[in-house]
Amino acid sequence: MITSLGDRRFSCRDIVLVAQNGNQLALSAGSLARISAGRAIVEQMAAGSEPIYGVNTGLGGNLRHRIPAGDIEDFQTQIIFGRMIGVGPALDPVICRAILLCRLIELASGATGVSLDTIQLLVELFNRGVTPVIPSLGSISASDIGALAHLAAVVIGHGEAWFNGERMSGGAALAAAGLQPARLREKDGIGLINHAAASATLAAYAVCDLEDALLVATAVAALSYEGYAANPAILDARLHAARPAGGQEEAAGMMRRALAGSSIHEPGQARYLQDVLSFRLLAPALGTTLAALATARRESEIEINGVVVTPMIFIDDKEILSSPNFHTPSLALAFDTLAISLAHFASLSAFRLSKLMTAAFSGLPQYLSPVGGGSAGYVSLQKTTSALYCDIRSLAMPVSLDALPVSDTVEDVASYAMQAIAKLQRQMERFRYLSAIEALAAAQAVDLRGAPRLGVATSCLHQAIRHVVPPLQADRPPGADVEVVVKCLSDPGLLAQLRAIIMPQGGLT
């Protein structure tokens, strides 16, 4: 399948799917025209005497240094070498491939002024499976210069790349793919590295991952409703329409669909007029997280499709202007907020788990153990829950509050968006385990209560869990069960079933 660049917008899900599905890329006719027009403006202005940032001037603290005309091409290569500052483990090859795609989206706009042959070489890297190796640490999201310099290095035959599953030098990867290194000209070096492509790509993956995690968590919460015999009247659409806080009506609707068809709705099935807050307040808490996710998705897609580079080419006006668009506080704050909201939502999961295991609240055997006596049942998993919740809360701490000035303090502001996104990914890992523990307890509660009829979604989830983990009888190692359930809850088939039931109109908004 060929994906055209230059005449369409990309969603977060598009970035993930195009990168992993083996799509080929092609520059649209409109894109080719804009790239050529933008390039002509760069060449015309570079031949003059006016300073152009990063073309005939130094960068950052070296802004006042003018680059002699004869040194401009060499300087574009120097820009890349001097900014290959990434350290630590490399990002996953599929992520690096998606970063290459994300970088090409802006280059196809023509506003970067990067030469056409250099952009076409990047397209060929993607199409022939040459994937630059990009370290995971070093960007402060003042553009992802420290990450993208490693991508740009492969274009000129340096750095490292993966090709046919093997990690090798950039030059060797180009040769193996039948490609020649690019010769960088005016603005090519700075144009390649001046973008938030790494942050935007990681954001796209985080948004898609969390959408799946929240879908599962909704089904798990509904299964806890079944096992606890909670009162579903709290999900009445009229209640949530009366105070439609962000995402609340959508969350209540998701829960109603998850419980559709359950005998929990029949008279006398609910055990309490009002349940504990961790059951009653599910829609407001989930809704807040859905609203935060919608904001994070919107900001991510702005970065994916926006023009960030500085200086920026205005083709119609034949003008070059320095741009502030490399600064990404909206993206950073969106992910910091999302992490805080996820911690709120996770707290309800932890508290529901405690109530399910406590006979005085659930009306079920203590610790969900059918044998009683000295049996531990699932009570020890409360310690695991506590550890996970501690991590989830600590990972909710914002990172976008302050910045360490760099480059002779000329660059005294940074968003740390990449750090905020990476932190959310770590938080999500703990959240998935927490959901798996609740799912395990909820399935046990359903079996002990002997619910006459589960909802369509909760029945689907219960069957999936019981396919991989039998009901608890005598004590057995519960951590092993959790590991199995974590994998079960990430199964694409189960996700597709739950999505069709809980989100029949498409993805989370």
Structure description:
This protein is mainly alpha-helical and 509 residues long. The chain has helices at 12-20, 29-46, 72-82, 93-107, 116-128, 145-155, 170-176, 188-193, 197-228, 237-241, 248-258, 277-280, 282-305, 329-357, 359-362, 381-394, 417-449, 456-468, 478-489, 492-502; strands spanning 2-5, 24-27, 87-90, 131-132, 135-137, 160-163, 166-169, 312-314, 319-321. The longest helix is centred in the last third of the chain and has 33 residues, at 417-449. 50% of the residues are buried. Helix content is 55%, strand content 6%. α3 packs across α6 (145-155), α9 (197-228) packs parallel to α17 (417-449) and α18 packs antiparallel against α20 (492-502). A 3-stranded antiparallel β-sheet has the order 4-6-7. The mean pLDDT is 92.
Describe the structure concisely for a colleague.
This protein is mainly α. The chain has helices at residues 12-20, 29-46, 72-82, 93-107, 116-128, 145-155, 170-176, 188-193, 197-228, 237-241, 248-258, 277-280, 282-305, 329-357, 359-362, 381-394, 417-449, 456-468, 478-489, 492-502; strands at 2-5, 24-27, 87-90, 131-132, 135-137, 160-163, 166-169, 312-314, 319-321. Helix 4 (93-107) runs antiparallel to helix 5.
Q: What is the fold's blueprint, element by element?
A:
Layout: E1 2-5, H1 12-20, E2 24-27, H2 29-46, H3 72-82, E3 87-90, H4 93-107, H5 116-128, E4 131-132, E5 135-137, H6 145-155, E6 160-163, E7 166-169, H7 170-176, H8 188-193, H9 197-228, H10 237-241, H11 248-258, H12 277-280, H13 282-305, E8 312-314, E9 319-321, H14 329-357, H15 359-362, H16 381-394, H17 417-449, H18 456-468, H19 478-489, H20 492-502
Parallel strand pairs: 1-2
Antiparallel strand pairs: 3-5, 4-6, 6-7, 8-9
